[in-house]
Amino acid sequence: MRDDCLDWQGAVTRWVALFILIAGVSVSAGCASYRGDMLSVDQALAARQPEAALKALAPLSGGRNQLLYLLNKGMILRLQGDYAGSVRAFEAAKPLMRYLEATSISENAGALTLSENLRSYEAPLYERLLLHVYQGLNYLQLNRPDSARVEAQQIDNLLKRLYPGTDATPHGGDAFARYFSGLVYEDLGEWSDAMISYRMAYKAYKAEGVPDSAIPPDLQVSLCRFADYLGLNQELAEYKQRFHVESWPPVAASGSDPNGQLIFIFSNGLAPEKLPVQTVLQNPADGHFFTVSLPSIRRRVPAVTDAVVDVHDQSVSTVPVESVAADAAKALAAEMPKLIADEIARNVARLAAANQADKKGQGLGVLLSLVGSIADQPDTRIWNTLPDDIQLARLSLPPGTYRVTVQLQGRYGGIVKTEKFDDVVIQPGQMTFTTLHWVTY
Amino acid sequence: MNKQLCKYLALPTLTCMLLLAGCSSMPKVERISPNQVTDISGYWNDTDANLTAQQMISQMLGDPWLANFEAQHNGNQPTVIVGQINNLSSEHINVQTFVDDMQRELINSNKVQFVASANQRTEVRGERQDQDLNATAATRSPMGQETGANFMMQGTINTIIDAAGDTSVKYYQVDLRLINMRDNVIVWVGQKKIKKIVTKPGFRF
């Protein structure tokens, strides 16, 4: 009985050893390929060649990176101005996200013995929320505000499902998604829902540690404006005291506002990269190798600080409303204890396999632990084509057709680029959403 | 020796076979009846659209607004135009499918007639304008002969989702109403409610 048990343990350990040797080389190659492909994508985007970026992205399609492929594809198609194509890519990503929420037995087995990269890519919360935000923008730019409202509802449902009974998520990422939802409801004339979303956005910013003085001024005004309109006097007094806002445009009955509003949303740069940090150690006693292999975040600081929007007789600077770089850093920090635990599990599995291999031949265990350690690459996958940060400006304009000029202000002074949007139509009582994603690499 | 080799390779081979089993490159296609209930994801699907259309048709044909109209108009059938059906739900729902189902059943019942909606008639008017220039007088459809609708059909689709962990309850409510074009009186309200419990698997292979 005991011999049978030992045989079984031996067979399992031999399987782990063989698995490490065979899969090690392919996983290492796969990781290098992913980073190389995304480098080509980023460079093509910076060169304003979205078609080339799509071609460079194509090898990522399918398998464990399918979700990343769809997310990046949706973003590149947006950059190309193909909003309908972007809608299709993002809609394909949504059910995959839900499917990947279930724990995979085979992927966990692989990840706990060989590498984190054997898991399918699962988007962190901030990416899931930004999927809905950019999908909502797609719909707004396709003049389908009802469909944008569906995205706002999906944001609410996702947050309620994952964090029931809380006003803000523990690791951030929800503030702008709530703020955006408020804009969508406001666009549809649903003032109560707009107020609820703006209030939740404010709470989320506060939970992230943003002081009242740094809350986006447009959100400050919107909170006062709708609290006033809805007769929430106590809440209004509180906002006035916190923000020192004394006046705001009145909320007109639906359709009776003589002016329209231009909402300009500026997506600045590219999201941070995840870089591998790998330390390989050797036990001098038996020669076996151990690895500490974890990802780190490197922000890709954009060359542009903000945008100045000139239209009619107004000139307004965009204001930061979301730092994707900060969200990514917080998400990784929250995940780190689990990544460390998984790393320990992999080292223990490799040690057991190496010890078993040592019994079969001198040096085999060392070779196995070396290959396993090299294969144990950190998971550096991230939705790269998101921006570094998102900024917003709101302008109230008389109805008409305008040319909107946007000057991108350089980080080291001067104007990096001037973009012009012709034939922007402003209609009374309605919002017009215009967006720009400026990629620098 | 062979026995030893088999023992060494058995587990990895089995694992590889299981992995490859899920990687078939050819899709499997099976034809089924359009009436068969196929709930896959728990989202709004063709079954929900069919159930909604059936309920609305039976309510619309059975409720007294129709008899009242016929009595007031010498037995003539009412003319309806489809207005906005607002999707206020949390899913992207194609409302056109059940609206088309309803139109087909109601037209075939010979009790209600529909005129082209605002979007549909734009193309028809363009063609009529073209006929004015290019068609012979005998075949030309003249302008100004359209039938005005007596009622406009409007509606909303709402959802309430209650979810925790892997289980969610989805409640859909579809409301349709007929509004008299002359005096804005709502003459009929139809309603369909659908409730589902969706349980998502916690594990996958």
Detailed description of the structure:
The complex is a heterodimer of chains A (441) and B (205). By secondary structure, chain A is an alpha+beta fold. Chain A has one domain (2-189, 254-438). Chain A has helices at 2-46, 50-57, 66-79, 83-100, 105-113, 125-141, 145-162, 175-187, 191-207, 217-229, 233-243, 324-360, 364-375, and strands at residues 103-104, 260-268, 273-282, 289-298, 304-311, 314-317, 319-323, 389-397, 400-410, 415-426, 431-438. In chain A, the strands form three sheets. Chain A has a four-stranded mixed sheet. Chain A has a four-stranded antiparallel sheet with strand order 6-5-9-10, with no helix packed on it. In chain A, a hairpin with a 2-residue loop joins strand 5 and strand 6. Chain B is an alpha/beta fold and 205 residues long. Chain B has one domain: Rossmann fold. Chain B has five helices and six strands; from the N terminus they run αααβαβαββββ. In chain B, strands 2-1-3-4-5 form a five-stranded mixed sheet, covered by helices on one side. In chain B, a hairpin with a 2-residue loop joins strand 3 and strand 4. Chain B is globular and about 70 Å long. Chain B starts with a helix and ends with a strand. In chain B, 18% of the residues are buried. Chain A binds chain B through residues 7, 11-12, 14-15, 18-19, 22, 91, 95, 98-99, 101-106, 146-147, 149-150, 153-154, 156-157, 160-161, 164, and chain B through 7-8, 10-12, 15, 18-19, 41, 86-92, 159, 161, 163-164, 168, 200-205.
